[in-house]
Amino acid sequence: MRQPSARRRRAGCLFCLPGMAFLALFLAYPLLYNVWTSVHDVDLGQLLGGAERFTGLDNYRTVADDPAFWHSVRLSLVFTLSSLLLQFTIGFALALLFARPFPFNGLLRSLLLTAWLLPPVVSGTLFRWMLDAESGAYNALLEPVGLSHDWLTDPSTSLAGVVFANVWIGVPFNMLLLLVGLHTIDPQLHEAAAIDGASAWQRFRHITLPLMRPVSVTVLLLGLLYTFKVFDLVFVMTGGGPVDATRVLSLYVYEVFFTSFRFGEGAAAALLLLVVPLLAGVLYVRRLRREDEAPTGGAV
Amino acid sequence: MRPPRHPWLLTVIATAITAVFLLPVYWMVKTGLTRPDRVQTPDPQWVPSPVTGENYSTALGYEGLTRALLNSLVISCGVVALTLLLGVPLAYALARIRMRGSGAMVLALLVAQLPPAIVLAAPLFILERRAGLTDTYLGLIAADTTLTLPFTVIVLRPVLRAVSPELEEAALVDGCGLPGVLLRVVLPLMVPGVVAAAGLSFLIGWGEFLFGLTLADGPDVQPVTVLLNAFIGQHGASWGALMATATLISIPVVCVFAVFQRFIVGGLTAGSVRG
Q1: CA distance B52 to chain A (A)
Q2: Do A122 and B18 touch (CB under 8 A)?
Q3: pLDDT of residue A133
Q4: Optimal mutation site among B114, B155, B222, interface A, most CBs of chain A within 10 A
Q5: Scanning every residue of chain A, which has its alpha carbon at the shortest distance from the alpha carbon of B131?
């Protein structure tokens, strides 16, 4: 590019200004305001008045002393890790299938993607109905093998039910991204190995898997970011219940903040909820940076 | 990859998997078309007979459904408009103009995608209430745009980078001013990226739930996602009407995806894998 003229630079600033100002006002400022709320005693009465009392780290202490908070942390970890494991494995298997050319490949792939596109509220409602104790379709299928069950209202299986729905949403997305990765593997590698007598399994194990490592890490990190923040699906399917069997962290924050109106504590809990996404985000951004610097771009 | 020996066999396998996978979607549509008295039976019908529109008239008779559908349409169109208005110039500047701070801005946009919506919904609830923005379209559109704007810029930036700078410079030399270059040269080249961003922003705005739940008090601006959730409480037993409502909400999603599919999938993979 030519030496940028001063005029062009000015235009650049002008182009950035509205968007960045908007994000400062509606994203950065609220997040900072959350920090402020988390060190004050704020409830519904003071919402419009503004006679909040500075309380230091009291709100954080209250949250950390709440067994329900730690219960939610555990649920979030179980929910996230089991969703990730399942959606990645199934997504990978499907990507391997769809990486091969066959008639109607594109059409079927697009159809699968509808699962990911449906609003989570719709999917949540839908899975409530699919897993319904009396007349849910899945129970009708499981009945003959004696496995029909009241999935969502039994506290010991409700989390599994929510994970099931979440995996259903996540699989097509995982498949799509892994497919992009598979397409970047040079087919000649497979051909050469096949000529040398490598079996399909050996080729998968020693060519596909190692070459898919960078893509896989990115997909898992993205999955972690998406899954950890899930709110709608769980809220609609179980509302956190029965009792607290599916009250993941985002629902815990919602209840403290929007149901009990304990704004200070809710803000503190919200900031604690940020820890995992921020850690995953740092890793993700570092990966993107490294790739941004690479001149060819590479697989990921 | 080598052409498989039996491509049709793979089609059969993939079709079977897709069919099993999409059973819930079929079930949603099917339940919506089944006679209400045959919906909740221990032995469900796999094909509705006779097909009936009864559930749809019940659902559309529910108070507020048409209004909520309209609200969702207004909100998601507003989200698309605001996102493009703010995002296109921003993406252009970050992709094509060398200036101080652009690296920091790109980083900020990546970080902006990290906070879970609930972390933002909490302070927005207080701040928008104080500013009188709760229960307005604007309040909801602005909240939703915090989700779509960072994402849009990140999808658009690589697209804009791919546009050859020579073309733009040639037009500049020919005496076309910067606004003219943008309108006549750059904009047409970035149409696929902009379409992808618009489509995805629409889908995000249409499906958004948490901001609708927390920032809208009444039926005046409440999106249809919030209403569907409320219906589960109010009409919990009428699954026929609930599934009819769910189908109505899904139709625009499927239409938008069907029309802009190529763009959206391209933008999606470019946005998340490539950054």
Answers
A1: 19
A2: no
A3: 76
A4: B114
A5: A48
Tell me how far apart the alpha carbons of residues A129 and A239 are, in angstroms, rounded to a whole number.
15
Identity of the residue in A34, A140, A236 whose CB atom sits nearest the CB atom of B229: A236
Across chain A, which distance is largest between two alpha carbons, in Å?
A: 78
State whether A121 and B123 contact (CB < 8 Å).
no
Q: Which amino acid is at A191?
A: E
Pairwise CB contact (< 8 Å): A113 & B1: no
End-to-end CA distance of chain B: 26
Mean pLDDT over residues A166-182, rounded? 93
CA–CA separation, A166 vs A207, rounded Å? 31
Name chain A contacts of B169, Cβ cutoff 8 Å: 1-2
Alpha-carbon distance B63 to nearest alpha carbon in chain A (angstroms) = 19
User: Which of A95-99, A140-144, B249-253 bottoms out in mean pLDDT, i.e. has the lowest?
Assistant: A140-144
Query: Are B56 and B32 contacting, i.e. CB atoms less than 8 angstroms apart?
Result: yes
Under DSSP, the state recorded for B45 is: -
**Integer Cα distance of B109 and B3 in angstroms:** 42
Residue among A9, A22, A29 whose CB faces B99 most closely: A9
Backbone angles phi, psi at A244, to 5 degrees: -135, 25
In chain B, what residues touch A181 (CB-CB under 8 Å)? Answer: 273
Query: Could B116 and A250 be called an inter-chain contact, meaning their C-beta atoms sit closer than 8 Å?
Result: yes
How much is the average pLDDT of A194-200? 87
Closest of B94, B126, B110, B108 to residue B274, by C-alpha: B110
Q: Which of A166, A74, A98 is nearest to A127 (CA)?
A: A166
- Calpha distance A62→A84 (Å, rounded): 31
CB contact under 8 A, B98 and A1: yes
CB contact under 8 A, A112 and B97: no
Peptide bond connecting A242 to the previous residue in cis, omega within 30 degrees of 0:
yes
A114-123 pLDDT per residue, tens: 888 999 999 9
From the list B98, B112, B209, which residue is nearest A121 (CB)? B209
Q: Which residue has the tokens 């039976």?
A: B41
> A298's torsion region: left (phi>0), alpha (psi -120 to 50) or beta?
left
**Residue A41, beta-bridge partner list:** A53
Q: What residue ranges of chain B have pLDDT lower than 70?
A: 1-4, 267-275
- Verify whether the Cβ–Cβ distance B43 to A140 is below 8 Å: yes
Tell me the nearest-neighbour CA distance from A18 into chain B, angstroms.
Answer: 6
What six digits make up the tokens of A250? Answer: 């985002």
Interior angle at CA B173, CA B168 and CA B175, nearest 5? 105
The CA angle A210-A216-A219, to the nearest 5 degrees, is 170
Contact A16 B89 (CB under 8 A): yes
A53 DSSP β-pair partners: A41
Give the pLDDT mean for A245-253.
93
pLDDT, greater one: A82 or A201: A82
Tell me the ipTM for this assembly: 0.89
pLDDT: is A283 or B145 the higher one? B145
Cross-chain residue pair B122–A270, CB shorter than 8 Å: yes
- What SS3 string covers A6-17? HHHHHHHHHHHH
* Torsion angle defined by CA atoms of residues B148, B151, B153 and B158, in that order, rounded to the nearest 10 degrees: -150
Q: Which two tokens mark B224?
A: 């249809």
